[in-house]
From TrEMBL:
It comes from the Eukaryota. Keywords: Cell membrane, Ion transport, Membrane, Transmembrane, Transmembrane helix, Transport. This is Solute carrier family 22 member 7. GO terms for molecular function: organic anion transmembrane transporter activity; prostaglandin transmembrane transporter activity. GO terms for cellular component: apical plasma membrane; basolateral plasma membrane. The chain crosses the membrane at residues 12-31, 139-159, 166-186, 192-212, 224-246, 252-271, 340-358, 370-390, 402-421. The keyword Transferase does not apply. Residues 87-510 form the Major facilitator superfamily (MFS) profile domain. Belongs to the major facilitator (TC 2.A.1) superfamily. Organic cation transporter (TC 2.A.1.19) family. SUPFAM superfamilies: MFS general substrate transporter. One of its GO terms (biological process) is monoatomic ion transport. The keyword Chaperone does not apply. It is a multi-pass membrane protein.
Length: 522
């Protein structure tokens, strides 16, 4: 007897499942508040070289001191990373006569002065991660996603080995500890280490929440549960904009986005372990206890407790033999699973690479960064509603492929649209963000349906690992603008279109029962 049939007897989508889903949505809210925190944590306000005091400056205003000490950009603003080697007093008479002799320019010698009108402090202003050190600033996000990448492998394996709930609780506890340590960082090195470890911990939350909820839901409501969980990511997106707007000091901002994990930990006690996982691992008595609880809460009191009925309903045969364990190598041992793993890995890379490429470029579309973050969160919700209809009508495969391809085309369109067309660029960017989120929403649902129960978390761990490589590389691609201003956008566009095309090679899972063992896949 399949687990899907058993779910129908105890209520495949009743009060029990609704409570579980909403509790699991709490940690989901917290994820984007860390994953996209780099936009505000490492924001770089306008700045210029610090000018040491000289007696010759006594009778000059600050504007005049800057005028004779710092060269200007073609648009008239002061350069951020250069100063004159000697004061150019002749500019007081005619400021338009900017020197063209590069020999009188030099890099900042005495640090920088920052505009604190928008941010009280960020890690950029704290440790001067600007100009020559700009790469270290972008690397902060990369180190975080390296942690998420490592965590995907660790928690993907552990949650298949030791259970979903225990590993979810462990990841939340570690998230709190390392998140608070990040807020207390006294050096850039300490911040990098603690943010990397926070990424490891949060990866477990990202990996486990959706499969744990879906393994309690019947086929008919699987898409709904996936979309519902994903909508709370968008809620977290919007909350991040509001929290960052209210908290402009980076230490306290880290505290503010980490503290909600405590609420998730407090509520998690009510959520049971996945009965599907328990049965697949031979823990039938424990699974039966949770199934009885589900039946009772859903009002299905006709679900009997007798040993005969227990044997009939739960003594299911899985392809997992006693003492047998699966590893990531199992994902590539059989031909169909190998194809699924290679193709889904490519899709996940493209989804994450383009999503974080757009999400970490809040100032590139002509909107205030707080407003951009909020609008990007809002636009994700209708995108997910549309995907809810599409994945149930045209299927997972077509929806996944075209959402990612259209994301790339929107990014590419903004390379062509002139900078002066601010409104049009903003509209195209918002559309691209909607398609990007639609692709991300679908890939979580799609992947969890592609892999069998005995390997589902290993599969999610592997694909998440590949995705986080994309997430880690995304912020570094911004540094390519020194080669060609539009090269980052062209890169995001090309990767999204190519990886979206790979999705056409995956099998369709619409209205197909979740596979229990490898034989169901092959």
């Amino acid at each position: 007897m399949k687990f899907e049939d058993l779910l129908l007897e105890i209520g495949g989508f009743g009060r029990f499942q609704i409570i579980i889903l909403f509790i699991l949505c709490l940690p989901r809210i917290n994820l984007p508040m860390h994953f996209l925190l780099h936009n505000f944590l490492a924001a770089t306000p306008s700045h210029h070289c610090a000018i040491p005091h000289q007696e010759a400056f006594v009778n000059l205003t600050m504007e005049e001191v800057l005028l004779i000490s710092i060269p200007r950009e073609p648009d008239g603003t002061f350069k951020s990373c250069e100063m004159f080697s000697q004061p150019q007093f002749h500019l007081l008479l005619n400021s338009s006569l900017q020197p063209e002799n590069n020999s009188i320019f030099q890099h900042c010698q005495h640090g920088w002065v920052y505009d604190h009108s928008q941010f009280t402090s960020t890690i950029s202003t704290q440790w001067d991660l600007v100009c020559e050190q700009r790469g270290l600033n972008q690397a902060t996000a990369t180190f975080f996603f390296i942690g998420v990448t490592m965590g995907a492998m660790v928690f993907g394996y552990l949650s298949d080995r030791f259970g979903r709930k225990a590993m979810l609780l462990l990841s939340l506890l570690c998230s709190v500890v390392f998140g608070m340590l990040s807020a207390a960082s006294v050096s850039y090195s300490m911040l990098v280490v603690t943010r990397t470890l926070t990424g490891v911990a949060l990866s477990g939350v990202s990996l486990i929440v959706l499969p744990l909820g879906m393994e309690w839901v019947d086929i008919q409501h699987r898409t709904f549960s996936g979309i519902l969980t994903s909508i709370f990511w968008s809620v977290g997106n919007m909350l991040l904009a509001m929290v960052a707007y209210l908290v402009r000091e980076w230490h306290w901002l880290l505290v503010a986005v980490t503290a909600p994990c405590l609420l998730s930990i407090a509520c998690l006690w009510w959520v049971p372990e996945s009965a599907r996982w328990l049965i697949a691992n031979g823990k039938v008595k424990q699974a039966h206890r949770h199934l009885l609880r589900c039946a009772r809460i859903n009002g299905r009191k006709d679900f009997a407790v007798s040993p005969e009925v227990r044997s009939r309903h739960i003594g299911m045969v899985t392809d997992k033999k006693p003492g047998e364990s699966y590893t990531y190598i199992s994902l590539f041992r059989t031909p169909v699973l190998r194809k699924i793993s290679l193709c889904s890995g490519a899709v996940w890379f493209g989804v994450a690479f383009s999503y974080y490429g757009m999400s970490m470029n809040l100032t590139g579309f002509g909107l205030n960064m707080y407003l951009s973050q909020f609008v990007f969160g809002i636009i994700e919700i209708p995108a997910k509603m549309i995907m809810y209809a599409l994945v149930n009508r045209v299927g997972r495969r077509q929806s996944q492929a075209w959402a990612l391809i259209l994301t790339g085309l929107c990014i590419g369109a903004n390379v062509i649209i002139p900078k002066s067309f601010t409104s049009l660029r903003s509209v195209v960017a918002i559309m691209g963000k909607g398609f990007s989120e639609a692709a991300f929403t679908t890939v979580f649902l799609y992947t969890s349906e592609l892999y069998p129960t005995v390997l589902r978390q290993n599969g999610m761990g592997y694909t998440s690992f590949v995705a986080r490589i994309g997430g880690a590389l995304a912020p570094l691609v911004f540094l390519l603008d020194e080669v060609w201003r539009s090269l980052p956008e062209v890169t995001y566009c090309g990767v999204a279109v190519c990886c979206g095309s790979v999705a056409f090679l995956l099998p369709e899972t619409l209205n197909v029962a979740l596979p229990e063992g490898i034989e169901d896949i092959e």
